[in-house]
Write a structure and sequence with these properties.
The chain contains six helices and eight strands; from the N terminus they run αββββαβαβββααα. The protein has 203 residues and is an alpha+beta fold. The protein is extended.
């Protein structure tokens, strides 16, 4: 059974591309062409060998995939393509992404998102046919940094009694955070629950 994903059986799918919220070519698939090229690699550390031994190699993880997208279009959809290019421009309002990449090659190579690094100048192949090239890299968002656990210390009974006397109300039932107790009288001043501290008594 012939594959329905092979380029020969589905040229329209392979000759177009979806990047973020836009598709290329816009309007009419016969007026444009998208050529997608994907290169994947891994980091290899080649350690120098002594004597006649071969160099030792060590894997140091995967490199982000390099993605090259060549866009060609005719004069009939020139204005619509300018809107697409403005959307993808790394110096445009979207800062080049990250964008979801929709193309058979992206699915085959397990590439989900890309960031556009550079956009070439427009090349006029003929007076009626134009070309722009996007150089992009696979987008792998950084892992979320776990927030440190904040442990609220318990308020000792001595602190409660001292604060109750200073404020003139029952602190135990006031619901104030423990940080106020740890800040002492100055913390209560900041919250407006006590007046400014007077000068320290002379010895």
């Amino acid at each position: 059974m012939a594959s329905t994903k092979a380029p020969c059986n589905n040229r329209e799918l392979h000759d177009g591309v979806g990047v973020g919220a836009v598709t290329f070519p816009p309007l009419n698939p016969l007026e444009g062409l998208a050529i997608v090229e994907i290169e994947t690699a891994q980091k290899i550390d080649e350690q120098k060998a002594s004597g006649t031994d071969k160099a030792k190699t060590k894997r140091n993880g995967r490199e982000p995939a390099k993605v090259k997208i060549t866009l060609r279009w005719t004069f009939r959809i020139y204005d619509e393509v300018q809107e697409v290019l403005a959307y993808l421009d790394p110096n445009g309002p979207n800062n080049g992404g990250p964008f979801a990449l929709v193309h058979p090659k992206a699915e085959e190579r397990r590439i989900k998102d890309i960031v556009v690094k550079t956009m070439s100048d427009r090349k006029d192949i003929t007076p009626y046919l134009y070309e722009v090239t996007l150089d992009a890299t696979e987008w792998n968002p950084p892992k979320e940094v776990s927030r440190p656990v904040v442990i609220t210390p318990k308020i000792s009974q001595e602190w409660r009694e001292a604060l109750t006397a200073a404020v003139g109300k029952n602190f135990a039932n006031s619901g104030l955070p423990a940080s106020v107790a740890l800040g002492g009288y100055d913390g209560l001043v900041d919250l407006g629950l006590a007046g400014p501290r007077g000068p320290d008594p002379k010895p």
